[in-house]
Amino acid sequence: MNYPSYAEIALPTRLQHFIGGTFVDSGDTFANHSPIDGHELSRVCEARQSDVERAVEAARSALQGPWGKMSVVERAAWLHRIADGIEARFDEFVAAEVADTGRPIQQAKALDVARGIANFRTFADLIKTAGGECFETVGADGDEYLNYVTRKPLGVVGIISPWNLPLLLFTWKVAPALAMGNCVVAKPSEETPTSATLLAEVMRDVGLPAGVFNLVHGHGPNAAGEWLTRSPGIDAVTFTGESRTGSAIMKAVADGVKNVSFELGGKNAAVVFADADFDAAVDGVVRSSFTNAGQVCLCSERVYVERPIFDRFIAAFKQKTEALRIGSPYEAGTTTGPLISRGHRDKVLSYCRLAVEEGAAVVTGGTVPSFGNACDDGAFILPTIWTGLPDTARTVNEEIFGPVCHVAPFDAEDEVVRRVNDSPYGLAASIWTSNLSRGHRVARQIETGIVWVNAWFVRDLRTPFGGAKLSGFGREGGRHSMDFYSELTNVCVKVI
Ligand code: NAD
């Protein structure tokens, strides 16, 4: 079955900011290009510093209104209304994600838009059942006191998100921030501005009070992103993106000592022990390496396979990788779309050249496919497997963020744990073994925020999500998000 209808869904062709409950233009625009065939999808307004400041002021004044003081039951109802609004325009959101990123339509439906909705519903439900700590205390004077904790909104939260899972990651921050009574100024990636604009339309259409949700479009350095982080009117920044950008943001907020939550880059490992269910492990590593053309922060770019099954694993991995269908998401059977842009493809291709210079044997991929149609003007690259690189190679240590991975053999459990941990990053890892004692043992030793055993990318939104080392700090998800997006006050009352 083909999906031409998704290409025909009308999407906005001029993407404006949403400030104080109104869509506003700002003279300068930049082009949003399709990564599928390079055509111009829309013109996007580039925010001026004054637009960002107006958005922050709108958020500040909305904070003085009823939003921050609303009961959690009322706020939860608003979040459900927003989720209903996305659901009512489900196909438009799918079309927006597919147009901006080129991802397979099934993925946009089952993952991106479904999670966009789930993010609002999950936090709507969580806030209704969240309690607070309470302690009975006997003071040094022998008197009795009751300590209890109240939660207040943090204030105005600046939200900055990347392009790889646009709606999913944008709403992963917007939903809990609103749930805790904050007002937000959010900047989506300049590469993927469409679904955030549709979300602003939903906010307007459900009648969310003006200024609670503000959207500014634009670039990062010396543009909307940086101005947002430097605005004196914000109280916190939550950011998902590259580690280097996280570092720049940390410097920008340092003078104001603002709260930050960072979900940053990774160089994740998959470890396959010889006792693993072989087919499940191969399928799992194909998914963990090449889902979304390798552009998920959780993707594995380093694969370690126990030596007795190494050759067999490489043969099966190659065969299943070559069976992936690369191409336009509007064609039936496509499993793998393009990279986000020609610029990003250039970066990934430069790593492909570097890998060969560093001594890699190319098992498959590493080149640009030829389609003989409009996709030749897109940003496609073949899924790529390398072997033979030393652990010190740049291609084994630096995040590439494309459909590329290096597979290396290992001989012993403690050796592979050491090699996995010998990385500046610490986001996620997956372990494939039928020995669950080993699974638990290795999981505890791996220096990442997330470890899957015989699984990959299974997410329960109540669990803590985030990374160690260069992969960020702070955790989001469930009560961890609620903690980040609220200010706790301890109240101590003398009772006797
Ligand atoms: P990026 O850091 O280039 O950009 C992310 C966002 O930050 C964009 O909106 C951009 O405009 C903005 N930005 C850039 N420079 C800025 C600055 N100086 N000040 C303020 N804002 C600025 O990242 P990307 O290329 O969009 O996304 C890919 C990266 O995101 C990869 O490193 C990937 O691993 C990471 N990522 C991490 C997670 C996670 O949960 N840990 C999830 C998804 C993506």
Structural summary, described in words:
The chain has 2 domains: 4-264 and 471-493, 3-Layer(aba) Sandwich (Aldehyde Dehydrogenase, Chain A, domain 1), CATH 3.40.605.10; 268-460, 3-Layer(aba) Sandwich (Aldehyde Dehydrogenase, Chain A, domain 2), CATH 3.40.309. It starts with a helix and ends with a strand. Helix 10 links the parallel strand 13 and strand 14 (300-306). The strands form 6 sheets. The protein has a 7-stranded mixed sheet, with helices on both faces. By secondary structure, it is an alpha/beta fold. Helix 3 runs antiparallel to helix 5 (105-129) and helix 10 (278-290) crosses helix 11. Helices cover 39% and strands 22% of the residues. It is built from 16 helices and 23 strands. The mean pLDDT is 97. Bound molecules: nicotinamide-adenine-dinucleotide. Residues 160-164, 169, 187, 189-190, 219-221, 225-226, 229, 240-242, 245, 248-249, 263-266, 297, 399, 401, 427, 467, 471-472 line the site of nicotinamide-adenine-dinucleotide (NAD).
Subunit organisation of the chains: single chain
**What's the overall average pLDDT, rounded?**
97
CATH homologous superfamily name of the largest domain?
Aldehyde Dehydrogenase, Chain A, domain 1
Known CATH architecture of the largest domain: 3-Layer(aba) Sandwich
Q: Could you name the CATH topology of the largest domain?
A: Aldehyde Dehydrogenase, Chain A, domain 1
Overall form: globular
Low-pLDDT stretches: none
Structural class: alpha/beta
